[in-house]
Amino acid sequence: MPTSLVLERKGQLSLRDFPLDTNLGPTDVRIAVRTVGVCGSDVHYYTHGKIGPFVVNEPMVLGHEASGVVIEVGQQVRHLSVGDRVCMEPGIPDPQSRASKLGIYNVDPAVRFWATPPIHGCLTPEVVHPAAFTYRLPDHVSFAEGAMVEPFAIGMQAAMRARIQPGDIAVVTGAGPIGMMTALAALAGGCSKVYVSDLAQPKLDIIGAYPGIETINIRETPAAEAIAKATDDWGADVVFECSGAAPAILGVPQLARPGGTIVLVGMPVDPVPFDIVGLQAKELRVETVFRYANVYDRAISLIAAGKVDLKPLISLTVPFADSIAAFDRAVEGRETDVKIQIEMPVE
Ligand code: ZN
């Protein structure tokens, strides 16, 4: 039995043998996992034992941001071969569902998502995954970049939902990993400039190093003031709320131009107040984002084309044997850490 990173219960991780279903169906591929990113959701299950309605009642293998190498293909698989370098989309819907038929499989109530109880994740040497949700990586895209496609896909979904027009000016509130991914996707999607606000200067320094991104430290200047100044009091075309913080959410209408768009990306832990009249007075369009659908190909294409460089956001890479230490470091929440990745041993 292979060694996996197991969340035994809230606050307790172990590296141990763990039984997983390894049955290869005709439309599946078997993948030797190479790189797995540590996500805020993995860390939250570790520290809190639950996210909303999803509760860790049984030991669960963590991890959902992964790349690897195909080592076996099911009988009916045509587009992948043994040896292909790939990354995997962690949410598997029911292909027969109404949501899947509509192309919105991310909101299929039956979706099974890695490391979301009771579904096990991918911090284990081998996974079996549907070929339809497994994507080949071009030769010059590394496994590390492949494992960044998952968090970047959320930024892509946000950019798609915004329906960006060429030259739009955007604001991203919150410079966490998802805020950074959203800012880069918005730039790649046609924004001429993206302002990113946060109160942690080290985070702003990291994302502000990208051309096209300007930062606002809200300890020094309120975001509304900075955006008013930058846009001649007009406001931003698109506001991506990525902080999940109540004051930022309440303030989003002030950042948008009349007729602009708000995309709610950040997830507040508890219900928060929302300024409806502020939205109405500018006839703002409000979009929400839950994970992503049909964006992996686009995300990989942008990375392969050099239009999006996610490598500067990989802060630390640790071997699988040290993955508990990697999680403890993620719990610290250092402001200079964006993404911590775990590398599986190569057989
Ligand atoms: Zn994630």
From TrEMBL:
<dbReference type="Pfam" id="PF08240">
    <property type="entry name" value="ADH_N"/>
</dbReference>
<keyword id="KW-0479">Metal-binding</keyword>
<comment type="similarity">
    <text>Belongs to the zinc-containing alcohol dehydrogenase family.</text>
</comment>
<dbReference type="InterPro" id="IPR045306">
    <property type="entry name" value="SDH-like"/>
</dbReference>
<keyword id="KW-0560">Oxidoreductase</keyword>
<dbReference type="InterPro" id="IPR013154">
    <property type="entry name" value="ADH-like_N"/>
</dbReference>
<dbReference type="InterPro" id="IPR011032">
    <property type="entry name" value="GroES-like_sf"/>
</dbReference>
<dbReference type="InterPro" id="IPR036291">
    <property type="entry name" value="NAD(P)-bd_dom_sf"/>
</dbReference>
<dbReference type="InterPro" id="IPR020843">
    <property type="entry name" value="ER"/>
</dbReference>
<protein>
    <submittedName>
        <fullName>NAD(P)-dependent alcohol dehydrogenase</fullName>
    </submittedName>
</protein>
<dbReference type="Pfam" id="PF00107">
    <property type="entry name" value="ADH_zinc_N"/>
</dbReference>
<keyword id="KW-0862">Zinc</keyword>
<dbReference type="InterPro" id="IPR013149">
    <property type="entry name" value="ADH-like_C"/>
</dbReference>
<feature type="domain" description="Enoyl reductase (ER)">
    <location>
        <begin position="11"/>
        <end position="336"/>
    </location>
</feature>
<dbReference type="InterPro" id="IPR002328">
    <property type="entry name" value="ADH_Zn_CS"/>
</dbReference>
